[in-house]
Hints:
The protein is an alpha+beta fold. Helices cover about 70% and strands about 10% of the residues.
Amino acid sequence: MPPTAIPALLQGLLGASSLLIGAGIGCYWKPNRALIAAVMAFGSGTLLSAVAFEITISTFQEHGFLPLLLGFSMGGALFTVIIRYIDQQGGFLRHPSSSRRYLYKQRQEETSEVLDRIAHVEMLHSLSPAEMQAILPLLKPITVEPDTVLCYEGTLGDAMFMIVRGEAEIVKGSRLMALLGPGEMFGEMALLTGEQRSASVIARTEMDLYELDKADFDAMLGRSPQLASGLSRILARRLRDTTQSQIESDEATNLWRQQVLDSVELELPPSEQQARLQELSKSSAPTAILVGTLIDNIPEALVIGFNAGNDQVGVSFLLAVFISNIPESLSSAVGMRQAGTAATRILAIWAGAVLLGGASALGGSLLQTVASSWIIAVAESLAGGAILAMLASTMMPEAYELGGPSVTFSTIAGFLVGFWLSSGNFVF
Length: 428
């Protein structure tokens, strides 16, 4: 075993130990958003400085630009691919930012599924994307058997319907007035006037429909008054004859569908966000959360191992990692607690991350003894690219979301402290 192995293991454990400190703080004391943001921004600054001065400059001076290009590209790509897979397995709960991204993606998929079924309801194209976003959560999918009466003539209107599949008859008295098929809607006047039905609508075949209840619509109308004008445009359009070709219609439908999807935002109330996360946490895999956490921190541990024999570089990078780990695990623990994860489970996950962080540093030290300096330079650059990918996708966006423009000065302070640590003032 090389002489640097034990120091690398100890330094790896020391650098990763702050993960457990941050997790403990997040489990038992919830700091305010401004403090979390400031600490996270400071940690981001120290890591940026460490990557710039401990990895990039030294590698460039010894081996040129090629290992940097190869390593940073592979590191960023590898981190992105692995984390995407881990998040799909339930690891997204380790960070509030990844949890929100998952909820956003889930909501967009739900919207896409509904749009696939109602995109051919041409009258809806008169609604703006914002108006559609207000209506979509209110649509209730229903299936009815043949001869089901959907609307009774002479009764007060309390809902409208959009036909996805099947046919319906419009009957006035005993007289058949018209047939309705997929892509058509009926009962929309009830949402604006509540007047009595002028005819009955009866299912001619088995039908799939979306129902929009007047009570739900009225509640939404109070929050989005523009829906009334949007529905009025639908009614006005129904009175006009149009002669578009099928190709033009398909192109317009695709454009409208994409505009609605692009307008999806995660505007769930905090209580609903928490409820969804708690439900998701029940089915999430602890292993996925642990592996995701390790992927976030293994690159840092490897660099510690690579530089275990370099006193100056080792201590400055070690301190930068120690500082940056605290806000990362703190924010993660706060988010996991909000999702309903038990404190003991959170602490166990981060304790495992500390142990495996030490093992990763040991592995980096062992690799240094068998690989050429050029290979080590590429490996170190790969770790640097993964660290930058983690900062860009998690820590920095989350810090700005929590603290806004004020995180600017915390990031600068962290960068300057990291540079100071790299400048030669600290020797292990």
